[in-house]
Write a structure and sequence with these properties.
With 207 residues, this protein is an alpha/beta fold. The protein has six helices and eight strands, in the order E-E-E-H-E-E-H-H-H-E-H-E-E-H. It has a five-stranded parallel sheet, with helices on both faces. The chain has a three-stranded antiparallel sheet with strand order 2-1-4. Helix 2 packs across helix 3. The longest helix has 16 residues.
Length: 207
């Protein structure tokens, strides 16, 4: 009889991170399954961004192991939008996707429309608001079929409508069998959000 258990997309075991001779966290275990969204919390300096970067392979792992049991691709979007003022929204999106999943102009226009930037495709980024620039970066969510999203402060600079839009995108991704691990200083209005509190995890590991 086939298993009905959700697929495991990410497994982190006994993970530790040390920065500037200070242990940010240790003994951290995290298993992320299809259809799950994990909200990483903790005060500034707790290691939220470092954890995401370790999972994404962008920061060396001090101790422990990170694995992707299904050997699937991931999509990482950092808290800095990496938008260049001298490029248009369309050109920025082409640049952001070039090293991952290259896109054509029609695909980018559709993605920009989905994030509420229809009519701004060829507007220079220098003329966009902070929220619109963030939407350009997040348009990658609609161009990459990676099941696992790693998002560092995706709600930053977004207004009330932008936050609602994002959470709708998140919910759709989960319904399609994807999973999300994100950091945010804001609470999420999505059913079933699971919390990983790095401050609490550090205190438990120290006991």
């Amino acid at each position: 009889m086939p298993s009905t258990m959700p697929d495991i997309l990410l497994q982190a075991l006994n993970l530790a991170c040390e920065r500037d001779e200070r242990m940010l966290f240790k003994g951290l275990n995290l298993t992320v399954k299809a259809g799950e969204i994990w909200h990483i919390k903790g005060p500034n300096g707790a290691g939220k961004t470092s954890l995401l970067r370790q999972i994404a392979g962008l920061l060396p792992i001090f101790q422990g192991n990170v694995s992707f049991p299904l050997d699937q691709s991931i999509l990482y979007i950092g808290h800095k939008s990496a938008i260049k003022d001298q490029l248009s929204a369309n050109e920025n999106l082409a640049w952001l996707t070039a090293l991952g999943v290259p896109s054509d102009e029609n695909q980018r226009y559709r993605a920009l429309e989905k994030v509420g930037l229809r009519g701004y495709e060829e507007t220079m980024a220098a003329q966009l608001s902070a929220g619109q620039r963030r939407r350009v970066a997040l348009a990658r969510l609609h161009l990459n079929a990676a099941p696992l999203w790693l998002l560092d402060e995706p709600l930053t600079a977004m207004d009330k409508q932008g936050i609602a839009d994002e959470q709708a995108w998140f919910a759709d991704h989960l319904k399609q069998g994807g999973a999300i691990v994100l950091t945010s200083h804001q609470d999420l209005d999505i059913p079933g959000v699971q919390i990983l509190d790095l401050h609490a995890a550090m205190e438990t590991a120290s006991c």
